[in-house]
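Box 3.1 A note on notation
Throughout this textbook, protein chains are presented in two layers. The first layer is the amino acid sequence; the second is a token string describing backbone geometry. Keep the layers aligned when reading.
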Amino acid sequence: MLEMISSGRRNTSAPPLRFGADEARIAAFGRALDALKAEVEATLGEQDAQHIQNIGKLSRRMEIAGRTLIQLSFDPVTFSVGVGALFVHKALELMEIGHPALHGCYDGLPGCEKYAADKFKWESPVDEESWKKVHNVRHHQFTNIAGKDPDMNFAMLRLSARVPYRLAHLMQPISNIFTFFGFGTALQLHVTGMLDIYVQNGQLQVLSDRKPATIAKQNRIFVSKLLKHFGREYVFFPLLAGPFAPKVLLGNLLSEVLRDMWAAAIIYCGHVGARDYPEGTEPPTRAHWYALQAEGGRDCDVPEWVSILCGALDKQIEHHLFPRLPPNRLRQIAPRVREICAEHGIEHRFESWPRTLASVLRELTKLSSKQAAPEEFVAPHAAAAE
């Protein structure tokens, strides 16, 4: 299936993906990953439940400490510590807790009922049901496939040369920076279809139609979640503070922006600059799908405590291979996944976070040009004709 020779840190001279070559090797790659998955799933249980329960407790303690210090502080240092603690809470809720919960990673674990995917309420400005449809189903099923993965095109942002060029993309180096400061709201605009309705010039990438009833429903979903989240952060808690309302409002705003910048800085690294695939790409087997997922992602090398604040999205490749494994297990298996990729000739991009982020920002700037060309890819039907 794939004529890929490199592994580990990226070899920029690696040949393009190609279906139809060395099917035995790709089948072996799939069997190795299936065996690893089965091995890990057989041991899921109390250890994983304890991990997320401990993270949940830590998150709540950080929230209590942060909100208390922000409200009662009388100096910049105490105020800053409070903002930092509240940022940690919000990062954990978004990344290590919320994202895996909505993937169903904690479903069925003892004592983790409140983290079940069908009940969990995300402490973020992003609607849960919209996220599950657009992210869990479409993005994870069709990762980096043009015309199918909605995450390749954020209207004003062009994340792949396979996305049709628009004049607005010329501003991408600047517009990209703005998304960092309000990343949660940008995600809500995306997954609820607001970009389809108001920015995409009639092109649909999330919604199935632009009927008045659909538009009205999606507007309600978009506004409802934002009002709940930002009303809590910027109205309810400031009002509780009485005369200290302005200070609490500022502290909550700063923690929100820090969380959004942190999330954007790791989430953009997951796929931008990795391999992407033209419309019509269809992996014929699960092993082929594994290979597309592995080569369509990028990992970052960070300490474990940073990985926890990232929700293991520094292990983006492992997350896409096994999206229902809890983040603590993704960190555990990442070295073995790298070994399996190396053994079977599948590229596994693995760099430091600063180097990855720098390359992502360069890639986004390059994609602001109409001349940016996609990498060669030989689709299944083309390979069959060779």
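Strands lie at 153-154, 157-158, 298-301, 349-352. The chain is about 60% helix and 5% strand.
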